[in-house]
Design brief:
Shape of chain A: globular
Number of strands of chain A: 20
Strand order of the largest sheet of chain A: 6-5-4-3-9-1-10-11-2-12
Oligomer: homodimer
Largest sheet of chain A: 10 strands, mixed
Distance between the termini of chain A: 86 Å
Largest interface: A-B, 44 and 44 residues
Strand content of chain A: 15-25%
């Protein structure tokens, strides 16, 4: 009996140990996958679920209805490169260096003659996740520097398929066309092997295998299937660029959008692919282990007029520090983990995805630097709000505005430079707000412009000190303290976007020899970059 | 055997007869109920489902997710009385008479010194439904004339609870406060027995029984329960006015909206009540027999500034013929009849509800007059689109614009009169579009302004004859023909809103004796009404 009892006891211990072992293994295998869908120049108002009358994002709308919409969510910059750098580093561009101080308050990015890129001293999200056991892949646009030190495979990605810069067309002589990479090497160039037809706004991929955006989708589906099978966690960072001007779509989407523009066609193609990804996750039973986040790098580029998206209901667009430049969709999908069909009024930024993903992966934040990143896990999983969250609105090196709670305070405002307006470039078409939406930079530091962006998200009705003295003084009072503390503590990163040089362009990317596509590199001529925006 | 066969045959015949009998009875009892929720000055962009960042219409959003959103839906006029007259008559104000021709292109309505109201020659929806076996009730604002001939109980409603005019405050001496009726007689007046506190923006009902909007909800719930039990069809026309300036809410909603305004509080209260109505329908198993439609009488009154709703993404607001004045929410809910979770791009107007309800009730349209009404049943039930649908945008007696398909052509445009602008009254705050959104009426008939409102719903980018000659000529060509035909066939109704008279105000409404609240009626002095808008 006692022997038997002992045996039983042993059995129990074994079971407990086995259970603990299973639990540990289980925990380990249950590290969530992350899929970060970062759209390009798509506006807050472009989604059916955000009121777009065309209602032609059914799959993304479905994603939101099955997940959460964080409606007060911001980018870190009103244009591409600094926005993307901040999301992956968890730090403002003014800290991570993806800005220029050639002139005050000017937006800079990474055209192909830029010398710099994301600093090696910055620790990027994919680097930390990879160290923590994640497999990582970038699909689509990178935009954090195209020279060798900035190559995505050197910055934490196991795999890459996509382009380092925007798909503008070049003549191949005064400037090379932008290469498309598969992992280490280029496989062709836009407008050459990888056509973008600017008359039909359609594309094809090298050797006619597939069209470019379709291929970005196929790469994603293949990656999810392949990595999903391993049971090990992955991070897929998906960056289609077809909605960025000049917009293009694959042939079967051409002319299919109700909007009837290349932009609209590009958006419905992206929507279709997002739907396919979610379907695949469900079919492969990965949906409970995968957090999918959809956002956009900045507000819609209203400068593209009828070929732009919409930031409705927000003021102005890309390049500005009004809500239309910064407020961005933030859709979170994680069945059975994030409650379905909810909206959250948690104020957040794309930089918060850094802390959030690390938190969910059980990985620590580096402690050697200042972060602009909080974990959104409590808001996503439990509906707990962090009311202390602050959002800074930088235009280049200029701190233009700050939001905390319901109030947003503008220290500086700017529309579009006068010389650009004359050329038809306008980031705030049809808007007239004297001294606020203006062609010159206006310094409001002495008497900041205050908006209650919960009540007045359209930034139509400034709260004047004369009209609402108590509200104005209280809100401006604490927002000024927030700014003061921020500026006291701030150690600006070395600006990476000050110098341009034609010699650094994509003349001879790695792999060009195999393709017989190495172009002669001109003499180096470093200049101070001109940033008019 | 043969006898048995005969017996069986008889049984079959009996069964068929019984089945037919059941089917007929069933059909008769299955005439749908109609609940028409007509909100007041609520804008297209005020709903979570239309992208409002505050996302505080969860019950209406749920209604949409369970039903259909018709995203190209319009009112018949950019303000209250003519809009409501058109919805109930199925005819444009220019036909039904609810307009003024004192001056060209001016919006008129039914203040309490108006002499006229909806003409007795107009056949109203509730009159036809009642003749067809429906029980009918109006709850809330009427706004089609407050003098005896225009009383809702004389115009097809079995029951009424509500007010004939807007709840503006009067001093009771130079003008009486607006009465609230229960059926035939007044039961009190706003700001007197029925308080609206303009400091706290809260209300109470006479004798403290309930607060006003709450009572409008209780009346609706009681009516649905009571009439639902009879198995006979009903038509409930529900018109809360708390979102119309000066906005007010019941105490438990005060300060509860994220927007933090009386308007926001009023809206969340209405949302809550709408939810209760849908819950009641489900609990009483009436949901498969009841079509619920939610819409708003015109665009948000941007003139109320921070106390207004929002028409985002549309241009301008109430009083204008831009999309912000006319485009209105159109949410249709009818579980198991209208497919859930769909949007329809059917172009429609509130006047179409007239033909739609009659169609669904199996009742014929009167054949003695011209209607501006098509049945939306094919779009709602089968997704079939009527692409020939035309929308006319009248401002008073002026045909300002027309839409067919994706194109909208403006013949006249107008913002706000200069003298109103100087007083801070602006229907297009912060908008600047030379010659289009302007302080004087601009006649574009010679070269109309053309917008592609599918591509550019915000009316930002006029299609110029020089830029897109083929599109411009084609679209303007057929739209001009549409206008030509419309104007050839048009027989304007006698304008009902030309004359005003202090003697017709609500001095001594029926029932005032019982309340000891009959005020002395001043001498009649008929004047030409002044319509500045």
């Amino acid at each position: 009996m006692s022997f038997k009892r002992q045996n039983n006891y042993r059995g129990l211990v074994t079971s407990v140990i086995f259970f603990l072992f299973c639990f540990c293994v289980n925990s380990a295998t249950k590290l969530p996958n992350f899929i970060l869908l970062n759209l390009d120049d798509v506006g807050w108002g472009d989604f059916g679920v955000h009121g777009n009358p065309a209602r032609e994002t059914p799959r993304i709308d479905q994603m939101v209805s099955e997940g959460m919409d964080m409606t007060s969510f911001y980018t870190a910059a009103p244009l591409c490169s600094p926005s993307r750098a901040a999301m992956l580093s968890g730090r403002l561009p003014i800290r991570n260096g993806l800005y220029s101080d050639n002139a005050f308050g000017r937006n800079a990015y990474t055209p192909q003659d830029i010398v710099g890129g994301i600093a090696s001293s910055e620790i990027l999200l994919q680097e930390l996740l990879r160290k923590g056991g994640y497999h990582t892949k970038l699909i689509g646009k990178w935009h954090l520097g195209h020279r060798a030190p900035y190559h995505p495979l050197k910055r934490g990605f196991n795999e890459w398929y996509g382009a380092p810069n925007v798909h503008f067309q070049y003549d191949g002589t005064t400037a090379p066309n932008i290469p498309v990479y598969k992992d280490q090497n280029m496989i062709g160039r836009f407008y050459e092997g990888i056509a973008i037809n600017l008359t039909t706004n359609t594309t094809n991929l090298i050797a006619g295998i597939s069209e470019y955006t379709q291929h970005l989708g196929e790469e994603a589906l293949e990656y999810i299937s392949r990595r999903g099978r391993t049971g090990k966690p992955f991070f897929l960072y998906w960056n289609p660029d077809s909605t960025h001007a000049p917009s293009y779509a694959s042939a079967r989407f051409r002319g299919r959008s109700q909007r009837g523009t290349a932009y609209g066609d590009a958006l419905i193609e992206v929507d279709d692919i997002v739907g396919k990804m979610l379907d695949l996750l469900v079919n492969h039973k990965l949906e409970n282990d995968t957090l999918v986040v959809l956002t956009s790098d900045n507000g819609a580029a209203l400068v593209s007029k009828r070929e732009a998206g919409t930031n409705a209901p927000f003021l102005c667009g890309k390049q500005t520090t009004f809500e239309g430049g910064f407020r961005t969709p933030a859709f979170f999908w994680w069945p059975n983990k994030i409650p379905a069909g909810n909206a959250s009024s948690q104020v957040g930024t794309q930089m918060d995805l850094f802390a959030t993903f690390l938190d969910l992966a059980g990985l620590p934040m580096p402690r050697d630097r200042v972060y602009d990143s909080i974990s959104l896990k409590p808001a996503l999983m439990n509906g707990d709000l962090d009311l202390e969250k602050v959002v800074f609105f930088y235009r280049g090196n200029g701190l233009f505005a700050v939001r905390k709670g319901r109030f947003k305070m503008h220290l500086w405002t700017w529309r579009t430079p006068q010389e650009e307006l004359k050329r038809g470039i306008d980031y705030c078409p049809n808007i007239h707000m004297d001294g606020i939406v203006s062609a010159t930079q206006v310094n409001h530091t002495a008497e900041p412009i205050l908006f209650d962006v919960d009540n007045d998200p359209e930034e139509r009705y400034p709260i004047r000190p004369g009209n609402s003295p108590t509200i104005y003084e209280t809100a401006v009072g604490y927002l000024k303290k927030v700014v003061e503390k921020h500026q006291q503590d701030l150690v600006p990163g070395k600006p990476a976007l000050n110098y341009c040089d034609p010699a650094v362009e994509n003349w001879a990317p790695p792999g060009c020899e195999d393709l017989d596509d190495c172009l002669p590199i001109p003499a180096s001529k470093v200049v101070i970059c001109d940033w008019p925006h």
